[in-house]
Amino acid sequence: MRIVLACSSFLTHGGGIAPYNRELCRALIERGHELLVITQEQLDAESWELSEHQAVQMYSTVVPKLVRDELEVARKMFNRIVEYDPHVLISSDHIYLTSLFPCFADRRTRITISHYYNKLQPKVAACRPRETDWIVALSKAGKQYLLGLPGCCAEQIIVIYNAVYDVNINVADLIFRKSREDVLRIVYPGGAIRHKSPEVVLKMVKRLTKSNLNWELIWLGSLGPSGSAEHFARRVPDNARKRVLVTGNVPRPEAEQHILRSHCLVLPSRGEGCPMSLLEAMRTGTIPLVSDCPSAMREVVVNGVSGYVVRRRDSRSLVSYLVDIAKSQQLRESLMRQARLVYERNFTVDAWINKVIKLLEHRRESRIKLKDTDQFDPTMVYRWHRRPGKWQRPTITYLRYKFGYPNLSPLSKG
C-alpha cells in the first residue's frame, strides 16, 4: 500500500510530533508499506535513511515568508502526491494536505492525527470533517474536544494512544537494580516549555532541599533564554545546584538514556496529548508522576499502582510521593513493575500499528462521495497554520497560532 504522510515536523530532535511521525513511518515500512513523507522542514536530501538498506522518499513544503506565495507551494505538493498515486493520505498536523482533502480522488483514504487535546492541532485535524475518513485522537480527552467541533461525528474519531519501540535490554533486571539504588533520580522532560509547568518542578526542588533524601534531578532541555521571563536558572536554590543537571537540548537517544536510568519521571503539564516521554518512562519501569490535566496521562496511569496522578500545581504531593518511593524499596519496585506492565498492555508498537492499519484498510462508510479524479482547487487551500513570528513583533497570523485559532479561510477566492 502506498501512503503519503504529511507533517509539520519529521527530522526535529526532541519530543513531540516529529518522533511520533518517525515511529509511524518506521512501523508502516516494517509492515511492507511504501511511504512518501512530506514535511515543511528544509531538506538536505530527497530521502531519509531508515536503515543501511532502506530509505524513505521525502518532499519539502517549506512555508514561504509571504502568505500570498503559499498557494504555489500547495499546488506543487498536490501534483507530487498525485504523481505518487497513494492509496492513503495521512495528515499529521499539515494544513495544506488536510485542507485539500476534497480535491483528491474518492478512492484515497483520508486520515488526520490530532496531537493535542484542544486549541490549534485538533482544529487543523478536523478542518475537513465531511471529507475525512478517520481522525486519530491521542486521548479520550482529545476525542471529547473534537466532538465539539463543527461537522465531526463520533464514529470517525478513534482514540489510539502513541507507542514506542521496546528497549533491547532485560527490563526486569533493570528494574531490580534501580529499585535497590540509594539515590533517587528524577527526570523532568519539559525544559522551559510553559505548558509543561517548569515552575511547579522548581517548587518541587525547593521542597526536596528541605528533606533528608538523597536525590538528583535531570532537567531535560533548557532553563529558558537568558534575561527572559522563562529563564529559571536564578530560581534554582543554591543548595540544590549540585543536584540538578540541566542537559540543554539533546538528541532523543540521549534523552531516552536519562529516562531509562531514572527512577521517577515528573511531568506536571497544563495539557498534553499522549507524551512520548511518558511511554519511554513506563517501558523501562521509570515511575510516572503526572498532572491530572486532560491527556492520556491521567487515563493510563493508575494512581498508586503504576504511578501517581496529582493536581497540576500540587508540588507538595509530588514531594510526598517521591519521599514514599525513596523510603520503600518494596513500593518502588512494585510501581516500576506495574509501570512496565502498562507499557506492555497499551504502548507497544505492534498493538499500535495494528490499530492504525485497520484505519488504512477501511474507508468510513458515511464519508461523502467525492469525484473519481484528482483535481486541484485553489479555493480549498488554507494558509499555513504555524506562521513564524515573535511576541515582540506579533502578526495577526502568529497570534492566531499561539492561541489556537488557525485562519481557516482559503488562500484563493477562485
Description:
The chain is an alpha/beta fold. It is 34% helix and 17% strand. The chain contains 14 helices and 14 strands. The strands form two sheets. Strands 3-4-2-1-5-6-7-8 form an eight-stranded mixed β-sheet, with helices on both faces. Strands 11-10-9-12-13-14 form a six-stranded parallel β-sheet, with helices on both faces. Helix 4 links the parallel strand 6 and strand 7 (134-137). Helix 6 (171-179) runs antiparallel to helix 12 and helix 7 crosses helix 11. The longest helix is centred in the last third of the chain and has 18 residues, at 329-346. The model has no long low-confidence stretch (mean pLDDT 91).
Q: Which key terms come to mind for this protein?
A:
414 residues, alpha/beta, six-stranded parallel β-sheet, 34% helix
Summarize the structure.
About 35% of the residues lie in helices and about 15% in strands. It has about 425 residues and is α/β, with parallel strands linked by helices. Strand 13, helix 10 and strand 14 (about 310) form a beta-alpha-beta unit.
Explain the layout of strands and helices.
Elements: E1 2-7, H1 17-30, E2 34-39, E3 47-51, E4 54-60, H2 70-84, E5 88-92, H3 95-99, E6 109-114, H4 120-125, E7 134-137, H5 140-147, E8 157-159, H6 171-179, E9 184-188, H7 198-209, E10 215-220, E11 244-248, H8 252-261, E12 264-267, H9 276-283, E13 287-291, H10 297-300, E14 308-310, H11 315-327, H12 329-346, H13 349-361, H14 396-402
Parallel strand pairs: 1-2, 1-5, 2-4, 5-6, 6-7, 7-8, 9-10, 9-12, 10-11, 12-13, 13-14
Antiparallel strand pairs: 3-4
